[in-house]
Amino acid sequence: MTAAPEETARRQLAGLARWRPAEIAFWALVLAAYAVFPQRAALIAEVAVVALFALSLDLVLGYAGILTLGHAAFFGWGAYVAGIAASRGLGDPTLGLLLGGGTAGVLGLLTAPLVLRGGDLTRLMVTLGLATVLFELANRFTGLTGGADGLQGMIVGPLLGRFEFDLEGHVGAAYALAVLFLAFLLLRRIALSPFGWALRAIRANPLRAAALGIPVRRRLVAAYTLGAALAGVAGALLAQVTGFVSLDVLSFQRSADGLLVLLIGGVGWLYGGLVGAVVFKLMQDLLSSLTPQYWQFWIGALLVVLVLLGRDRPRAWIARLRRPAEGAAP
Length: 330
Description:
Strand content: under 5%
Largest sheet: none
Shape: globular
Number of helices: 15
């Protein structure tokens, strides 16, 4: 007697959700890097923030297929909300993350109807315009944001009321890695849920997805809102571990860096954002120390090589090493 289609699908989803040895090894290496290189704690925290930002962008672009050039709008919003809260006496890190992520999610929900209206070119322009407007507002209201001088007077309280942020960045790195791992668990669960598969179907062919009964617009609004909230958490995390917020968090360069990270690691693959963030930050750190004036040239050269090779080529190489029965990765 054969199982019902629903039961078969449920078993397949449960099989895909199981953790593979390569995934466990990856996170073990992350913990090992924190333990072996304590002198590079600040860099590890930066990598974690960039990886979290890339994950949020991957949900919007890689899974939902929403083109955007202004994802830094939510990153910067979360950074300024957490920074202003800390400068006004609300320095609890957890509260700052909730405020930054929550308000960024509300901003994403309010702007989603505007962004999702029209085609891909319209979305690119609208998202870029949203980030530009927020950048100019932050630059103009100097009494609140500090303008071009950056936000001053941030006092971030101890983590969980016990662990003070140290100058070496050890607590900040552990904090950033913990937040990144929790966010990854959430996104992994979403990517392997029926909601995640619905997003893949919408990205592949919205008309066909609608014909199958998938509420396309509601799914896209939910994905865009969740991506905005996670970007806000990443921004708040950066503000807390560095103790400073400047206009850079809202710049177009921030959005471009997120896209470059996904291009390096792979779009529509959660580990692509993580791997891309590691490669991008290590290259940036190494090249800026070797050639401070021309490091961006080498980053650009890498971008050209990746485009020539094909952005899915590294993932295809990894897929060949897997067993055929292992199934798709999140």
